[in-house]
Design a protein that fits this description.
alpha/beta; 8-stranded mixed sheet; 34% helix
Amino acid sequence: RAAAVCGSHAMTAASTSIAPVVEDDIDDLEDLGGAETADGVRVTRDLPPVVTLRAKKRSASRVAVGGGGANTDGVGHRSRANDSDRRGARSDDDNDEEGDDVPEILGSSKPAGASAVPGVAKVHVKTFGCSHNHSDSEFMAGQLGAYGYDLVTDPDDADVWVVNTCTVKNPSQSAMNTVITKGKAQGKKLVIAGCVPQGDKKAKELEDLSLIGVTQIDRIVDVVERTLAGDAVRLLEKKPLPSLDLPKVRRNEHVEILPLSTGCLGQCTYCKTKHARGELGSYSPEALVQRVQTAIAEGVTEIWLSSEDTGAYGIDLGTDITRLLKDLTAVLPADGSCMLRLGMTNPPYILAHLDAVAEAMHHPGVYAFLHIPVQAGSDAVLDRMKREYVVADFCTVADALLAKVPGMTIATDVICGFPGETQEDWEKTMALCRKYEFVELHLSQFYPRPGTPAARMKRVDTKEVKRRSRELTAYIESYRPHDKLVGTTQRVWVTDVAKDKVSLVGHTKSYVQVLLPGGEENRARLMGKSAEVRIIDAHRWHVTGDLIEVHDRTAPRPEAPPAPKYSSPAAEAWDLKTWKRKEAAARADWVNEKGNNACSTCGAPEGETCGGDKEGTGTSDAETAMTRKDESLGTWMFRALTTAPENRLEWILTAGVFLGLLGIMLTWVASHLSKIASGVSAIASMTRTDR
């Protein structure tokens, strides 16, 4: 598919019998490839269509009727009495002492029309970028729908737009700017999410708009509410990953997108995503296994593992991708009715896990497909990119997997015209592509991203970059890797409808795209199921087939297990920190009710024995604020050093004590330095005299 190979990924949601909710533009390698129907219509493998999940109708008890049954805007106001029950402790976060979870309010204006009513407005979600971004949008849409908002396809029909952005390349951010301009012109309320506001919050296009960061997606309801009320909210502070147990609206009811982690361990000179996603942060294996079990219980046919670098998974937790793959494959249905697709991985961190990856791909429920970006076939260019590997490392990974898993599909990425790339460098890249004849290859011309080291490097002439791009594109389209499948019988998993709105889209075990006859009858029989298919024709980006037999699910799908309390150790630590702050605040409020001088332990008036002091030591509130009962100063100092501080004052006192001790020691040494030097000299002289 020439357009895809050249990096053009504009996407239109495939039409289905159900109207989609989330519009999307995808820039992810799994969506490369394409097809032509018998009448010559070009169809491409885009992400699956969006599924509409409308929020349940609000009961009359949730609508406060006034003024003749309607408000002045013609929309009934929903009762807020039960919000705390519906949203748990969410509202408590607004009282956090520290700014890491408190929205920054830039200003407000009077809301206009029906869009001003929280929980009653219509929301349109627009998503750019990779599958991780689409997973974030699914979680945000799920929370908004669960809270009562209507999710709509038509942006003109919405009161507020949630725009989930991508910062990988200039075209993605330019498309975001176009959407923002259009929204402002139509007077829409705008919430900008994703990598652009997280990595470049001072961008001119984002002025006076509500922004929500990549780890704050569990606060989307708060941000939308306050935006509808006329506030411009900024919630960009980094915190642990949001829970995987949040409400979710899948873009395709048959596909679960599961993020393994966020961020990476690399320092690529051209990458803007690192500015947004940051360092590696992994979900716990237990949380991921539970999410997979939940998705299987809900009837999905495919589970896509999403990550900036799958091979690096778990390094921050002391685990690795080997253990995770074993845990995940252990819970897949034995009949192969649900397929697992591995996410993108860079060569350095997957080298140690090739045996585990190959073993996983031999499982009947795992696609023999892996996306391994090489970016360039020249070590000199890779060094300037700071990719942390050489071409030989990529070849080691590719050769080992192809040998261990015959027939598997390796997809890759190539950046054309990176600064400093010579003709010799480019020839090496072309030679690598000829060697492997990649079934799927994403070719992108270099885009200098502001704030990255590569943006300051001298660029290759634009005409030469375009020439090289055309050269590789022509080569990619010159070979036909799927001809060998003609006449064979393949098991195919069907999850999608092609852009011609008729043909059904499925994939073989090696993730080759298969087009099948569509129509309402076939859609009802095949969608979300697997089938035996005879391949009758092959094209560059797909094959076509005839249905032989539909596989029924034979393995039971047990109920979803309960979600773990924490999705990662970082989330547990964050929760403890937040709990301590809230406990301290609650205690302060309680003491204030008893009197400003009351004991914080029992509320006893000042001067009386503490009611919480069972041993009768008479420890006062002033003492318990600094030390615990029967705790000496030395014990307290040791506790303050080895445990998290209970309040800022404890840190200040600890620092003061040790700085004071250090100062005393240094003063003593300075005042006695001359005496110490004289003593050392005398001892040396006596030693020489004895000799």
